[in-house]
Amino acid sequence: MIRPSGPEHAGERTAERPLKAPGEEAQERTPVSIPSLSVVIPAYNEAANIGRMVEEVVRDIGPLTSALEIVVVDDGSTDATATVVEGMTARFPCLRLVRHERNEGYGAAVFDGLTSATMDAVFFTDGDRQFDLREVRSLLEKFPSADLVVGYRSPRRDPLLRRLNGVGWSLLVTTLFGYTARDIDCAFKLMRRKVIDRLRHEVRSRGATFSAEFLVRAKRAGFSIVEVPIRGHRPRVAGSPTGARPAVVARAFKELLRFRVRLWHEGREKGKP
User: For residues 195 and 139, what is the distance between their CA atoms, to the nearest angstrom?
Assistant: First the structure.
């Protein structure tokens, strides 16, 4: 079950923008801009990060659009993630919170964020503050000629085991479905609303396989995909990642297999191999 909360002011710009972090110069003006943009942030037990994350979105992405919306999806957190977000909605009227009663999985959080977003362009990233959000400008530069702009971490600032797992997962997805992107699970993607509208009833994975299915189906639907290197990837400084938990990994492989089978059946129904 999903419970939206927060003021109904999606798209309004807050008067407190731009913010300036301690010891950090204000972001220089840039000619790159977009009329309206939703920023979707899935979060699970990110109380230590989510407040700063919202501030960074407002400071670094806010000046790039005339209408900003921030949608934080709390995926059944057991810490104060939702409380922190709710406490910021008065300060940032463009901020909305979507809550899951229980932990439903990474893909479910991303899906509900994307489908809850209201702007013409939608960007999503994780709430762990591992990305320098100023690099959204690199995605916007490619956006006029693409339906979906996908970042890839270059380099990826994660422990060796997580990097190896990521490479292995991408190779497996490419082997099963063909090439879509070099860093499939990179949470730094910008897309047009028509991509979400087209795929919202087709993408069924709600765990870690979500990004893979979303990209595969986007490519098969004929949407143009452009990849961009993201150099501002940082080590996690607070909170704990959950992607390597056995239950999460097992669910990912089950969903991947089910997706492969569904595509075979869909192909047969359409008379394709």
Answer: 16
Among residues 226, 225, 223, which one has the least CA distance to residue 198?
A: 223
The residues spanned by each domain of the chain are 2-19+32-269
How many other C-beta atoms lie within 10 A of the C-beta of residue 144?
7
Name which of 128, 136, 93 is nearest 109 in CA terms: 128
pTM: 0.84
What's 39-79 look like in SS3?
Answer: EEEEECCCHHHHHHHHHHHHHHHHHHEEEEEEEEEEECCCC
pLDDT for 246 equals 82
Nearest one of 213, 181, 218 to 198, comparing CA atoms: 218
For residue 242, pLDDT over 70 is answered with: no
pLDDT band at 16 (very low <50, low <70, confident <90, very high): very low
Tell me which fold the domain 2-19+32-269 belongs to: Spore Coat Polysaccharide Biosynthesis Protein SpsA; Chain A (3.90.550)
- From residue 159, alpha-carbon distances to 86, 87, 103, 165, 244 in Å are 32, 33, 25, 10, 12
232 or 45: which leads in pLDDT: 45
Supply the Cα-derived Rg of the chain in whole angstroms.
18
Adjacency order of strands within the sheet including 65-75:
2-5, 95-100, 65-75, 34-43, 121-125, 188-192, 148-153, 225-230
- In Å, what is the CA distance from 221 to each residue of 113, 169, 213? 21, 23, 12
Read off φ and ψ for residue 211, nearest 5 degrees.
-60, -40
Residues 6 or more apart whose CB falls under 8 angstroms from that of 171 comprise none
